[in-house]
Amino acid sequence: MARAAVPRRLGTRLRWQVATLVERRAENEGASTLVLDVPDWPGHLAGQHVDVRLTAEDGYSAQRSYSLASAPDARHVEITVQRVGDGEVSAYLVDGLAVGDPMELRGPVGGWFVWSAGQADRVLLLGGGSGVVPLMAMIRARRAAADPTPFRLLHSVRSPADRYYLPELRRGDPGLTTEFLYTRTSPDGRSRPPGRIRQEDITGFAWPPETSPMCYVCGPTGFVETAADLLTGLGHDPDHIRTERFGPSGG
């Protein structure tokens, strides 16, 4: 069933809806994609997020925000959740929620960190850890729209075991280039020593600033601030850099 984003349907976006888990896919040891059936889903744009609310039998409830991983026209709504230490919500979503279980969801939310077909001539995606989730929604949206815009994804992770969506990214798409940075452990044969993102990582992978790529940066606050500073320092137009960051929220 095709869904179109309808930004003005605020009533639906702000109302809590019941979603049912229909499938769970492990992305790595600490993260899973939850495939949800949401009967009254109003549609979304690639890059938006949703609020998730869990309520216990005694009435205690907890709420968190998660980026949408699915393309706007996908049959089901997908979010990818990373288990956060002793986080009460993320741990339940990754390890406890079973197929057929309900949960509450509200959204989509956000209108700045989004991508639509034909929006830019080139798109550079920089993701740190689970910050790759909304970027993957953009890649899937591009594929679904058969949009020819060149995409480049630079994904920073601690180790090879922490990569997300690896089979799908390995299959690739025409016009999509993917590269990984490793901050703690690199695969054998990599000449780049493990470490956080550096200027040479961007100059060796990204288009030059004079080509005016649209840059999307998402991840932990430290990663986003560093990557955005590197981009502006290299001469990229700040108006072409969109950022989304996340920090400790109790998981």
From TrEMBL:
SUPFAM superfamilies for the chain: Ferredoxin reductase-like, C-terminal NADP-linked domain (SSF52343), Riboflavin synthase domain-like (SSF63380)
Source domain of life: Bacteria
Name by which UniProt lists this protein: Oxidoreductase
GO molecular function: 2 iron, 2 sulfur cluster binding; oxidoreductase activity
PANTHER family assigned to the protein according to its UniProt record, in alphabetical order: NADH OXIDOREDUCTASE HCR, PROTEIN RFBI
Cofactor(s) annotated in UniProt: FAD
Positions of the FAD-binding FR-type domain: 14-115
Organism per entry: Streptomyces bathyalis
Pfam families reported for this sequence: FAD_binding_6 (PF00970), NAD_binding_1 (PF00175)
Keyword line: 2Fe-2S, Iron, Iron-sulfur, Metal-binding
